Amino acid sequence: MGYMKQPLVINLPVTEVCDSKCVMCNVWSVKKTDHFNRDKIQRLFGQKIFSKVKHIGLSGGEPTLNTHLIDIADELLNCLPNLKSLSITSHGYHTNRHLYILPQIKNLCSQKGVTFSLNISLDGFEESHNKIRRVSDAFRNATE
After folding, report:
1. In the Cβ-directed half-sphere of 73, how many Cα atoms lie within 13 Å?
2. Residue-level pLDDT at 3
3. pTM for this one?
4. Helix 69-79 vs helix 38-45: angle between axes, to the nearest 10 degrees?
5. Is the pLDDT of residue 2 over 70?
């Protein structure tokens, strides 16, 4: 039996749900549902192959639209014993969701000694960003 390298960094799209209409992506045009919840995360990331993961990035679609995001983060923190950092990449439109969800995830990370960061995607300045995202207030929402 051959030696299998274990991943150290993972990008995990936790949903294909998105309310941006980006020119470079068609995720928004197909009705999708969330891919992951706590149980699916445990079944996948509870496997030994993931035991050396040091960083996981949660993306999408728009990850903050996954109603299980806090549970997903919590389960990843439980399943990945060598995790050092967790990040979320967001389009930044939903300030109220961010203010509710992100402090809880940051707190869970802090309890495990894991660094948490939020990445906001920008594709240009003001009108350029709005044009690419095809959302009229995209830049203002992302920078708010």
Report:
1. 29
2. 61
3. 0.90
4. 20
5. no
Give the number of other Cβ atoms within 10 Å of residue 143's Cβ.
12
In Å, what is the CA distance from 76 to each residue of 41, 81, 99, 144? 7, 9, 21, 29
Which pair of tokens denotes residue 92? 């930044």
**H or E stretch covering 67:** none
Encode pLDDT of 115-139 as tens digits. 999 999 998 899 998 899 998 898 9
Tens-digit pLDDT profile for residues 93-114:
988 999 999 999 999 999 999 9
Tokens of residue 94, six digits = 């939903």
The answer for 51, left when phi > 0, alpha when psi is -120 to 50, beta otherwise, is alpha
Residues contacting 53, CB < 8 A, separation 6+: 6, 7, 8, 9, 10, 45, 80, 82, 83
- Give the C-alpha separation, 15 to 7, whole Å: 21
Phi/psi at 87 (nearest 5 deg)?
-130, 155
Name the residue among 22, 7, 13, 33 with its Cα closest to residue 89: 13
